[in-house]
């Protein structure tokens, strides 16, 4: 990787993906790697600006690298996820998902709740869950290894805050991770 010009990390439900981009400004070469695997390779492109679109993650989320000339032979590289800048995508994603990172029995786990679908992901796998209504909200039950887990959804009582989701493993409350 001699012409590596940009690296991004994108947190999706199935994990954090590393996107690397090589741009040969003399040859016009463009290479895109996702998690170390080559997704796109184009040699001898005469147009040095433009865009490359490719899928990322288990849900084949659409990613686009924009290549723009700034001045002379300087270039700017920006990443879009589902048509939004990476920053805007991550801001909107923080509103639609909750993420917890924890260690159980020496194994690290990253658990993601997609609030719109109530899907629960753990280390890249969508989990089987069982939801039930309880007195003060809902509980979504699932297992991680041999640990029983539950995400409790309770109203905050405040319109701006909405519903508060809490992960309980055994009898321990897990703090939410900031991504």
Structure description:
The chain has 179 residues and is mainly β. It has one helix and 17 strands. The strands form four sheets. A five-stranded antiparallel beta sheet has the order 13-14-15-16-17, with no helix packed on it. The longest helix has 11 residues. The radius of gyration is 20 Å and the shape is elongated. The protein starts with a strand and ends in a 5-residue tail after the last strand. The mean pLDDT is 92.
Largest sheet report: 5 strands, antiparallel
Sum up the overall morphology in one term.
elongated
Q: What are the low-pLDDT stretches, counting only 5+ consecutive residues below 50?
A: none
Secondary structural class = mainly beta
Topology diagram in text:
Blueprint: E1 4-12, E2 15-23, E3 30-34, E4 37-42, E5 50-56, E6 61-71, E7 74-81, E8 84-85, H1 86-96, E9 97-104, E10 107-114, E11 119-122, E12 125-126, E13 130-134, E14 137-144, E15 147-155, E16 163-169, E17 172-174
Antiparallel strand pairs: 1-2, 2-3, 3-4, 5-6, 6-7, 7-8, 9-10, 10-11, 11-12, 13-14, 14-15, 15-16, 16-17
